[in-house]
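Practice problem 4.
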């Protein structure tokens, strides 16, 4: 049984989608959800689905002794970032080399990097008059949004699409594709 840790910072729709996807799996499960914010609604979503959670603040997250023992205690094989807004420290990238995946709400390398998350990305896409956008699932490296791209999924945009429309289209792509890509990447398909 492969064990997954999901790192979150916010609402947690992708987190919940991943947990639900792996509930019936005989080969993998979400073992723990870790957030850098105590008020992240993702923690409530995890609890409602019977998944343990933990809060590790930003300063504590930077220290290996606060994170690695928890991951080892739970036998974590893979880490999935689902709306996690901190840079992953080098010690985690080294420990889980090639086994940390992130989802980003644009077609990287466009609209990536520090400060480019959620509505900031959608606003930039709208302001640029893009005719398509999408999601990128990539391996995490020590460069913000710079890791190897695993999969990208596109959606067309029109000039009439508002930021909220772009967000809804991205959310639909995330719900449809993220769990399957994670499953494939950890070798279960």
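Answer key:
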């Amino acid at each position: 049984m492969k064990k997954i840790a999901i790192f979150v910072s916010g609402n947690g729709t992708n987190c919940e989608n991943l947990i639900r996807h792996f509930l019936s799996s005989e080969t993998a499960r979400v073992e723990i959800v870790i957030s850098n914010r105590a008020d992240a609604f993702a923690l409530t979503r995890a609890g409602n689905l019977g998944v343990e959670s933990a809060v590790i603040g930003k300063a504590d997250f930077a220290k290996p002794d606060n994170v690695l023992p928890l991951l080892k205690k739970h036998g974590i094989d893979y880490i999935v970032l689902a709306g996690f807004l901190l840079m992953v420290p080098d010690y985690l990238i080294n420990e889980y080399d090639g086994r940390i995946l992130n989802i980003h709400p644009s077609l990287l390398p466009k609209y990536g990097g520090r400060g480019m998350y959620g509505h900031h990305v959608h606003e930039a896409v709208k302001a640029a008059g893009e005719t398509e956008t999408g999601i990128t699932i990539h391996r995490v490296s020590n460069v913000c949004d710079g890791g190897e791209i695993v999969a990208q999924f596109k959606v067309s945009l029109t000039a009439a699409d508002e930021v909220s429309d772009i967000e809804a289209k991205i959310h639909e792509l995330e719900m449809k594709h993220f769990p399957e890509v994670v499953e494939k990447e950890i070798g279960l398909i």
